[in-house]
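ok so i was messing around last nite and threw this chain in just to see what happens. nothing serious, just curious
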Amino acid sequence: MTTESKNCAACAIGDEESFFKPFLQRRIMKYILMTLPLAAVVVASLMTAQERPNMTAAETGPARAVRVEATVKAPISEVWRVWTTSHGAEEFFAEKANIRLAIGGPYEIQFDPKDERSGTKGLKILSYAPEEMISFQWNAPPEMPEVRNGGTWVVVQMRPEGTDRTHVTVTHLGWKEGLEWDRAYVHFTRGWGDLMKRLERRFTDGPIDWNKERMMYQESRERKS
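result:
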């Protein structure tokens, strides 16, 4: 190759580099700008989690929820049965139940057999995945009318732990702000906790004996009398 040819080749390479360098720089800068917001979100999330180790979404803000969990000594098929059939719910949830497993089917729990207002008459199943989860509408006692008509709902999730144990998580969602909502939050924190204890006892001692069981509605009635 002659000196002139070499110089021409070098010029061509130089021209090509001068063309591609700005192009590559623009692409790299565009990529950095695109990823900066995501990085900021991740860093902010990590900082928030580190700064507030004792706070959860269940306690603050619009994501407020009542959440309880337990591992029961029963296979998932049995746990699914007691949550999704009338007869099964009557073994731990309340003395009377009317459940039909279908989207829009009834999920009616009657805590006081003598007073329909103490239950969830008219409320429906929202969604379900067999032996994984079920969600349904929920209300509140008559003395909390704003919450009773506030449109809350419950999600029950379950997963097997081995062949004879099942982990259950109950989450009560749809909370709003206000004094009555705060009272209801305290009420259901205890109520769902009591329910999970009954669920555990159902599979250790057998179906609940409702003649011996003391329920929250009975305490409320006694306070009024």
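not much to say yet. The helical segments are 3-51, 76-84, 86-89, 145-148, 179-205, 216-224.
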